[in-house]
Fold:
Amino acid sequence: MNRTISSDASGKTRQILEDLEAVRENLLALSDDIWLSIDHNDPQALDAGVEFKRAYNAKATAFDQVASELSALVQQYTSVRLEQAEETGADDRERNERIIAELNRDEPHTLGEDFTYKRPHGFILDGQAATRITTWQRLYELACRQLFARDESRFRRLVEHPEFVSTRGHHTVTSDLPSLRKPLGVGGDLYIEANLSANGIRDIVRRLLDAFEIPVERMQVFLREDRDAGRAGDGT
Structure:
Protein backbone atom coordinates (compact mmCIF):
# COMPACT_ATOMS: atom_id res chain seq x y z
CA MET A 1 0.00 0.00 0.00
CA ASN A 2 1.42 3.38 -1.02
CA ARG A 3 1.55 6.29 1.40
CA THR A 4 1.14 9.98 0.62
CA ILE A 5 3.78 12.07 2.35
CA SER A 6 4.22 15.83 2.67
CA SER A 7 6.07 17.79 0.01
CA ASP A 8 8.87 18.51 2.50
CA ALA A 9 9.24 14.82 3.36
CA SER A 10 9.00 13.96 -0.33
CA GLY A 11 11.89 16.29 -1.12
CA LYS A 12 14.04 14.83 1.65
CA THR A 13 13.19 11.28 0.58
CA ARG A 14 14.13 12.04 -3.00
CA GLN A 15 17.46 13.55 -1.86
CA ILE A 16 18.24 10.44 0.18
CA LEU A 17 17.43 8.21 -2.79
CA GLU A 18 19.67 10.32 -5.03
CA ASP A 19 22.48 10.17 -2.46
CA LEU A 20 22.13 6.40 -2.30
CA GLU A 21 22.49 6.17 -6.08
CA ALA A 22 25.52 8.48 -5.95
CA VAL A 23 27.23 6.23 -3.38
CA ARG A 24 26.63 3.18 -5.56
CA GLU A 25 28.14 4.87 -8.61
CA ASN A 26 31.05 6.32 -6.62
CA LEU A 27 31.94 2.85 -5.33
CA LEU A 28 32.33 1.71 -8.95
CA ALA A 29 34.45 4.77 -9.70
CA LEU A 30 36.67 4.14 -6.66
CA SER A 31 37.26 0.57 -7.79
CA ASP A 32 38.40 1.85 -11.20
CA ASP A 33 40.64 4.46 -9.58
CA ILE A 34 42.40 1.97 -7.33
CA TRP A 35 42.87 -0.58 -10.11
CA LEU A 36 44.42 2.02 -12.42
CA SER A 37 46.77 3.17 -9.63
CA ILE A 38 48.33 -0.29 -9.28
CA ASP A 39 51.70 -0.93 -10.92
CA HIS A 40 50.72 -3.82 -13.20
CA ASN A 41 54.39 -4.49 -13.97
CA ASP A 42 55.05 -5.28 -10.30
CA PRO A 43 53.96 -8.91 -9.69
CA GLN A 44 53.48 -8.39 -5.94
CA ALA A 45 51.49 -5.22 -6.43
CA LEU A 46 49.40 -6.88 -9.12
CA ASP A 47 48.67 -9.95 -6.95
CA ALA A 48 47.65 -7.70 -4.06
CA GLY A 49 45.49 -5.64 -6.42
CA VAL A 50 43.71 -8.71 -7.78
CA GLU A 51 43.04 -9.94 -4.24
CA PHE A 52 41.69 -6.52 -3.29
CA LYS A 53 39.48 -6.33 -6.39
CA ARG A 54 37.92 -9.71 -5.69
CA ALA A 55 37.11 -8.79 -2.10
CA TYR A 56 35.98 -5.27 -3.04
CA ASN A 57 33.77 -6.47 -5.88
CA ALA A 58 32.07 -9.02 -3.62
CA LYS A 59 31.31 -6.39 -0.98
CA ALA A 60 30.26 -3.79 -3.55
CA THR A 61 27.93 -6.30 -5.24
CA ALA A 62 26.32 -7.13 -1.89
CA PHE A 63 25.91 -3.44 -1.09
CA ASP A 64 24.47 -2.75 -4.54
CA GLN A 65 21.85 -5.46 -4.09
CA VAL A 66 20.80 -4.17 -0.67
CA ALA A 67 20.78 -0.57 -1.91
CA SER A 68 18.64 -1.53 -4.92
CA GLU A 69 16.14 -3.35 -2.74
CA LEU A 70 16.06 -0.51 -0.20
CA SER A 71 15.55 2.10 -2.92
CA ALA A 72 12.75 0.08 -4.52
CA LEU A 73 11.06 -0.42 -1.14
CA VAL A 74 11.16 3.29 -0.29
CA GLN A 75 9.95 4.35 -3.73
CA GLN A 76 7.08 1.87 -3.62
CA TYR A 77 5.96 2.88 -0.12
CA THR A 78 6.28 6.65 -0.51
CA SER A 79 5.39 6.95 -4.23
CA VAL A 80 8.52 9.08 -4.64
CA ARG A 81 10.13 8.12 -7.95
CA LEU A 82 13.63 9.09 -9.02
CA GLU A 83 12.43 9.34 -12.64
CA GLN A 84 9.29 11.35 -11.97
CA ALA A 85 10.95 14.73 -12.57
CA GLU A 86 12.62 13.69 -15.84
CA GLU A 87 11.75 15.32 -19.14
CA THR A 88 12.54 14.11 -22.63
CA GLY A 89 11.86 15.57 -26.03
CA ALA A 90 11.24 12.22 -27.68
CA ASP A 91 7.64 12.86 -28.73
CA ASP A 92 7.28 16.63 -28.67
CA ARG A 93 9.39 18.96 -30.84
CA GLU A 94 8.56 22.12 -28.89
CA ARG A 95 9.37 20.47 -25.56
CA ASN A 96 12.59 19.11 -27.03
CA GLU A 97 13.64 22.59 -28.17
CA ARG A 98 12.83 24.00 -24.73
CA ILE A 99 14.88 21.30 -22.98
CA ILE A 100 17.83 21.92 -25.32
CA ALA A 101 17.64 25.66 -24.61
CA GLU A 102 17.64 24.98 -20.85
CA LEU A 103 20.55 22.55 -21.05
CA ASN A 104 22.59 24.92 -23.21
CA ARG A 105 22.67 27.42 -20.34
CA ASP A 106 25.25 25.08 -18.78
CA GLU A 107 28.61 23.92 -20.06
CA PRO A 108 28.36 20.96 -22.47
CA HIS A 109 30.76 18.06 -21.95
CA THR A 110 31.99 15.54 -24.50
CA LEU A 111 32.45 11.78 -24.31
CA GLY A 112 36.20 12.30 -24.30
CA GLU A 113 36.20 13.61 -20.72
CA ASP A 114 36.73 11.96 -17.33
CA PHE A 115 33.41 11.69 -15.46
CA THR A 116 34.75 10.09 -12.29
CA TYR A 117 32.84 11.31 -9.19
CA LYS A 118 30.69 13.60 -11.33
CA ARG A 119 26.93 13.42 -11.74
CA PRO A 120 24.81 14.03 -14.83
CA HIS A 121 21.57 15.92 -15.11
CA GLY A 122 20.95 15.81 -18.87
CA PHE A 123 22.17 15.01 -22.36
CA ILE A 124 21.55 15.79 -26.00
CA LEU A 125 21.98 12.89 -28.41
CA ASP A 126 21.81 13.78 -32.09
CA GLY A 127 19.35 16.59 -31.42
CA GLN A 128 17.13 14.76 -28.91
CA ALA A 129 17.36 15.90 -25.30
CA ALA A 130 16.62 14.60 -21.82
CA THR A 131 16.97 16.46 -18.52
CA ARG A 132 16.59 16.08 -14.75
CA ILE A 133 18.38 12.73 -14.82
CA THR A 134 19.83 11.58 -11.50
CA THR A 135 22.30 8.79 -12.39
CA TRP A 136 24.72 7.65 -15.09
CA GLN A 137 22.83 4.38 -15.33
CA ARG A 138 19.63 6.26 -16.14
CA LEU A 139 21.44 8.38 -18.74
CA TYR A 140 22.79 5.16 -20.25
CA GLU A 141 19.35 3.56 -20.29
CA LEU A 142 17.67 6.54 -21.94
CA ALA A 143 20.42 6.87 -24.57
CA CYS A 144 20.12 3.18 -25.42
CA ARG A 145 16.33 3.40 -25.60
CA GLN A 146 16.68 6.33 -27.99
CA LEU A 147 19.01 4.35 -30.24
CA PHE A 148 16.76 1.29 -30.07
CA ALA A 149 13.77 3.39 -31.17
CA ARG A 150 15.89 4.89 -33.94
CA ASP A 151 16.91 1.55 -35.48
CA GLU A 152 15.79 -1.61 -33.68
CA SER A 153 17.32 -4.03 -36.18
CA ARG A 154 20.74 -2.37 -35.90
CA PHE A 155 20.55 -2.49 -32.10
CA ARG A 156 19.68 -6.19 -32.22
CA ARG A 157 22.76 -6.89 -34.31
CA LEU A 158 24.89 -5.59 -31.43
CA VAL A 159 24.24 -8.86 -29.57
CA GLU A 160 26.95 -10.51 -31.70
CA HIS A 161 28.95 -7.39 -32.56
CA PRO A 162 32.59 -7.96 -31.49
CA GLU A 163 32.77 -4.53 -29.86
CA PHE A 164 30.05 -5.61 -27.43
CA VAL A 165 31.31 -9.09 -26.58
CA SER A 166 34.24 -9.47 -24.17
CA THR A 167 37.14 -11.85 -24.66
CA ARG A 168 35.43 -14.14 -22.13
CA GLY A 169 32.22 -14.13 -24.13
CA HIS A 170 30.29 -11.73 -21.89
CA HIS A 171 27.69 -9.81 -23.91
CA THR A 172 27.02 -6.14 -23.20
CA VAL A 173 23.76 -6.37 -25.17
CA THR A 174 21.72 -9.56 -24.83
CA SER A 175 18.31 -11.15 -24.45
CA ASP A 176 19.78 -13.61 -21.92
CA LEU A 177 18.69 -11.78 -18.79
CA PRO A 178 20.35 -14.09 -16.19
CA SER A 179 23.77 -13.55 -17.82
CA LEU A 180 23.85 -9.87 -16.77
CA ARG A 181 24.91 -8.70 -13.34
CA LYS A 182 22.74 -5.58 -13.52
CA PRO A 183 20.38 -5.62 -16.51
CA LEU A 184 18.51 -2.63 -17.91
CA GLY A 185 15.80 -3.07 -20.52
CA VAL A 186 16.19 -1.05 -23.70
CA GLY A 187 13.24 -2.38 -25.70
CA GLY A 188 11.60 -5.64 -26.65
CA ASP A 189 13.54 -8.54 -25.15
CA LEU A 190 16.93 -6.77 -25.19
CA TYR A 191 18.90 -5.77 -22.11
CA ILE A 192 22.20 -4.02 -21.47
CA GLU A 193 24.78 -4.56 -18.75
CA ALA A 194 24.64 -1.58 -16.37
CA ASN A 195 27.15 -2.63 -13.71
CA LEU A 196 29.51 0.08 -14.94
CA SER A 197 31.19 3.19 -13.61
CA ALA A 198 30.56 6.59 -15.19
CA ASN A 199 33.63 6.19 -17.40
CA GLY A 200 32.61 2.64 -18.26
CA ILE A 201 29.25 3.95 -19.45
CA ARG A 202 31.02 6.71 -21.37
CA ASP A 203 33.14 4.15 -23.22
CA ILE A 204 30.18 1.92 -24.11
CA VAL A 205 28.15 4.90 -25.36
CA ARG A 206 31.06 5.90 -27.60
CA ARG A 207 31.02 2.39 -29.09
CA LEU A 208 27.25 2.59 -29.55
CA LEU A 209 27.53 5.86 -31.43
CA ASP A 210 30.19 4.36 -33.66
CA ALA A 211 27.98 1.32 -34.34
CA PHE A 212 25.11 3.63 -35.28
CA GLU A 213 27.43 5.82 -37.39
CA ILE A 214 26.67 8.87 -35.27
CA PRO A 215 29.63 11.28 -34.83
CA VAL A 216 30.73 11.31 -31.18
CA GLU A 217 30.37 15.10 -31.04
CA ARG A 218 26.61 14.63 -31.55
CA MET A 219 26.41 13.53 -27.91
CA GLN A 220 26.69 16.22 -25.25
CA VAL A 221 26.48 15.59 -21.52
CA PHE A 222 25.48 18.16 -18.90
CA LEU A 223 26.65 17.85 -15.30
CA ARG A 224 24.79 18.59 -12.12
CA GLU A 225 27.68 20.53 -10.58
CA ASP A 226 27.64 22.97 -13.50
CA ARG A 227 23.90 23.47 -13.15
CA ASP A 228 24.11 23.94 -9.38
CA ALA A 229 27.01 26.38 -9.76
CA GLY A 230 24.96 28.37 -12.25
CA ARG A 231 22.02 28.53 -9.88
CA ALA A 232 24.26 29.66 -7.04
CA GLY A 233 25.69 32.37 -9.26
CA ASP A 234 22.17 33.55 -10.10
CA GLY A 235 21.28 33.62 -6.43
CA THR A 236 18.61 30.93 -6.93
Q: What stands out?
A: Residues 125 and 143 are 7 Å apart (CA to CA). The helical segments are 7-37, 43-78, 93-103, 136-150, 152-157, 198-211, 224-234.
